[in-house]
Amino acid sequence: MHLYVSINKWLISIVLQCSLVIKLASSQGVSCFQCMTTDPNNDSCQDPFSSLLNPIQTNCQATSVGKNGTFPARFCVKIVGRVTSVDSDANASYLNAIIYYRSCLVDNIMDSTKALESSGSFRLKGFQSMTGSIRLQGYMGLCSVDGCNRARGFTSSLSVIIFVLFFMKFISGFEY
Predict the structure, then answer these.
(1) What does the domain layout of the chain look like in residue ranges?
(2) Cβ-based neighbour number of residue 26 at 10 Å
(3) Residue 135 CA to its chain's centroid (Å)
């Protein structure tokens, strides 16, 4: 009986500490990798990705549609694709190049699709601070876990699953 009471107190303590951490973290932005292709021939943003060349941006801030200023980011994004066309005022040297873009967002740009990943044709307006837009054929992924825009496969979910399984095994080892 004494062991049962100790375990319950321990579990209640862990739940309270976790809820405190979650509350504190909720006021901060998600941490994302931020980079973009500036030179298709020498691209430190491409896959395989190196976090040594592009360190993670903690408490990422971004603008929000219809609002002034920056706000804590809720999502990380990765866009990769081959440029299929450029506007007349855009940089024509990007035509047929593969570009990478990793950043953070406040707004869910995938809200209309109800999916977190999408492949197809995308238009980037104001890419690299250029006037006009570029159209690319590729992949776009959105996620909400720190550092999840590192690679196409979002591996952060795997670490959470492993932790939960380990924790469940640990708890089930106690007998009442």
Answers:
(1) 32-143
(2) 8
(3) 22
Residue 153 pLDDT exceeds 50: no
What is the rounded distance in angstroms from the CA atom of residue 50 to the CA atom of residue 150?
A: 8
Helix (H, G, I), strand (E, B) or coil at 92: helix
Q: Nearest to residue 176, comparing CAs of 5, 28, 18?
A: 5
Cβ atoms of residues 73 and 58 within 8 Å: no
Structure tokens of 108?
């869910």
Let me know: does 105 contact 73? Beta carbons within 8 Å.
yes
Q: Judge if the upstream peptide bond of residue 55 is cis by omega within 30 degrees of 0.
A: no
Query: In this predicted structure, what is the pLDDT of residue 65?
Result: 86
Interval 13-32 mean pLDDT? 57
Give the number of other Cβ atoms within 10 Å of residue 30's Cβ: 24
Stretch (H or E) spanning 22: helix 2-26
The reply to whether the predicted model has a pTM over 0.70 is no
Phi and psi (nearest 5°) for 35?
A: -165, 165
Specify the pLDDT at position 141. Answer: 93
Asked whether the beta carbons of 33 and 56 are under 8 A apart, the reply is yes
Does residue 147 have a pLDDT over 50?
yes
* Residue 164 CB partners (closer than 8 Å, separation 6+): none
